[in-house]
Amino acid sequence: MSLWTASDAASATGGRATRDWQADGVSIDTRTLRPGDLFVALQAARDGHNFVAQALEKGAAAALVSRIPEDVPEDAPLLLVDEVLPALERLGIAGRARTEARVVAITGSVGKTSTKEMMRAALEGQGRVHAAEASYNNHWGVPLTLARMPADTEFAVIEIGMNHPGEIAPLARMARPHVAMITTVAAVHLEAFENVEGIAREKASIFEGLEPGGCAVINGDLAVSPILRAAARAREARIIGFGAGVSNHHRLREAHVREGATVGKARLWRTEIALKIATEGRHFLLNALGVIAAAQAMGADRARVICNLASWAPPSGRGTRETVVIDPAREGETLELIDDAFNANPTSVSAALAVLAAGQPCDGVGRVHRGRRIAILGDMLELGPREHELHAALAEDAAMAALRTVHCVGPRMRALHEALPPERRGRWVETVEELVPQIDRLVDSGDIVLVKGSKGSRVSRAVDAIRKLGQRTRSGEKEA
Known about the structure:
single chain; Udp-n-acetylmuramoylalanyl-d-glutamate--2,6- Diaminopimelate Ligase, Chain: A, domain 1; nine-stranded mixed beta sheet; seven-stranded mixed beta sheet; MurE/MurF_N; Mur-like_cat_sf; UDP-N-acetylmuramoyl-tripeptide-D-alanyl-D-alanine ligase activity; cell wall biogenesis/degradation
């Protein structure tokens, strides 16, 4: 069964199909396009119309365009529309309307993508699940995810993000979730908002898209939780709070970080449960409580959700832990790498530092013969006028006392570098490219190394440099 026929897509978008075709998927990038996809010629950093011919050559079933490119024949399989992005939005709305799937929408200042992936894993085996790819959570990512949703989907997981006021509500109305979850609200995107309360109101606008009788799953431990609750009550939503506070319906009572896992005990309403996830971080376990609440509100079996979560680990770049073998000929010549280089703000950096502080380095190996906890921190972006103050404040984080060295990357991170005590102060560099040639001298066997920073700081290049020191294996895996 095809995802879209020419007639269905034309009806959904108000466009005109040049000829009959059937598409099995929807793509916006010729690099990842698969034969049978409908190629959407979005105009963003580059005009997608310049790649229509290439898409058709690679086997695209058709192309969604607002004009016929000069290098494409008029009888090519096309769907002509007035504007491409609004047409994609209409296609997404139609994709949502034709399914009877139970839909959950997830937003939050921190943890959207990892929680979305956690939700996907939690629902596995309980029905046909459709979820957003990567971090497709913006003005084109949400409609693209909806347009890709098969009609027979039973559970849909939609991630919704924002950079400026007014972005979330239209996307939530497009997704029409039965359940909406807010992971947390933190000092992120302060360039566009006056304060955290403004961010909370924007995050809470996700409830404007809730279906009648919908459920709001809210982090109840926040200073701005009352703002979130008020917005949910305004939509007459059923509210489930999660967190560590005694007022939460789903409450984490204790958490213990182990090697390769976090385990704990929680109370779900009046039921005591043991909970485990296959990664390190108390913050992940807290979000798991929200996932359990949301999944159950969607009609999933709670026991199976809890079992599925026991084997969940975050996607690459979002807190994954792996072993880098420095010298395979010598036993123990490895270091532990925590790759959290996709995004950063004060809240997520604090959580990552806590994970690093809980790790156990290995002594007696390498040049230093003393295992160390080392952080390589890149700039936190979009923090507004207080950005230098917020960077410097990381020096007071409780986890810092357990760290040996902190290396800082970027002009904003200079504020942290200067605020650190001399015994903990590592290198400061303007760009990560200056740090990469020094990596082999900054880390050693026995170390646990955290790399954390906003994507724009490009500290992921430090991750790549560390991996190149040896043979990369995921934690818990053995070499063949």
